[in-house]
Amino acid sequence: MRTVTTIGVYGWTLERFLAALREAGVELVIDVRQRRGVRGREYSWANAQRLQAALAGAGIRYSHHKELAPTTELRQLQYREDDRLGVGKRSRTELAPEYTARYLHEILDQVDLDPLVAELPAGGASALFCVERDPGACHRSLVAERLSEEYGLPIAHLLPPDVVR
What we know:
Layout: E1 3-7, H1 14-23, E2 26-31, H2 48-57, E3 61-64, H3 72-85, H4 97-106, H5 114-119, E4 125-129, H6 140-151, E5 155-157
Parallel strand pairs: 1-4, 1-5, 2-3, 2-4
């Protein structure tokens, strides 16, 4: 059965990231970032070329769906809200309501998800991939929710070991 998981960068090492994907049976990672890089040595493994090589070595396919990435303007809106609340991108736990509304209207409502769904492994899991640790702080959770609502796909969120739920 098709399953969609979500996973971010923050809080993972490459080894734990790959182990979590394997444990969840992920066969395809769907990158929904606009810019496929992460600042800092700690997360350099998540830069596109390194990530793709690591996934290939683990037998996991990779796909980039830039059409699902928020625009620079939307990201800036979220950063302004983060500044107002005194939180950083790495510690954010939720999206700004205006960001969510605009992402849904400007991005997700405009995208045909049929090609993405057709790409999902028929008998396994895929993972929507972005940066934020907490899925509620990232647009990937909005994409996952839409896939669940419109296609009946079960959703799970893969969290780093230090996140308590």
